[in-house]
Amino acid sequence: RLRQVMAGLTAEDWDKPCFHRRGPMPVRDYVGVRLQELTVHGWDIRSGLDETAELSKEPLADLVGRVPRWLTNAFRPGLDLPAPTRYRFQVTSPVPVAEDILVNRDSYRVEPVEPSGSGQADVTFGCDTGNYILLIYGRLDVDRAVASGRLSVEGPKDLAANFTSWFEGF
């Protein structure tokens, strides 16, 4: 039934409001939220049975596009952790990402990585797109992800581990 409804949507329908528990949102955002939930919670289930489970590759581009909204919802300001801290993400395929997240105790901002190398990172995370999403969404423990090869980390391990305290998954 859902496929039938989606197949029948016109270009104008994608911007119409629909109900969400946090308030009305355009159909396009609602579908994105559902895709996010199916992808991430599907991984939650599979990873309980298989620690090598990966995210499906098809929705990764959409999930990368949803990261800014996720960070806004997941950020926990005011923690008594070292700040400012610049987290750099060097994400490879299938959807490359090169960005810094600069955390200043009560706020954060996302910046593109400067080609000149200015803006030295305190911590650099290296991974593929699926593991980037899992880290951003609070699904990866940094130490275990490094040990399993899902993630590489340059910089102090304690600062790296703090990322999932600043941005807590739910």
Going by helix content, strand content and strand pairing, the class is alpha+beta
**Number of H- or I-type helical stretches:** 6
Major sheet, described briefly?
Answer: 5 strands, mixed
N-to-C SSE series? Answer: HEEHHEEEEHHEH
Specify Rg, calculated over alpha carbons.
Answer: 17 Å
Could you name the CATH class?
A: Alpha Beta
Write structural notes for this entry.
The chain is α+β, with helices and mostly antiparallel strands and 170 residues long. It has a single domain, classed as 2-Layer Sandwich (Nonspecific Lipid-transfer Protein, Chain A). 41% of the residues lie in helices and 19% in strands. The chain is built from six helices and seven strands; from the N terminus they run αββααββββααβα. It has helices spanning 2-7, 27-49, 60-74, 129-136, 142-148, 157-166, and strands at residues 17-18, 25-26, 85-91, 97-104, 107-112, 123-127, 152-154. A five-stranded mixed β-sheet has the order 5-4-3-6-7. Strand 1 (17-18) and strand 2 form a beta hairpin. The mean pLDDT is 92.
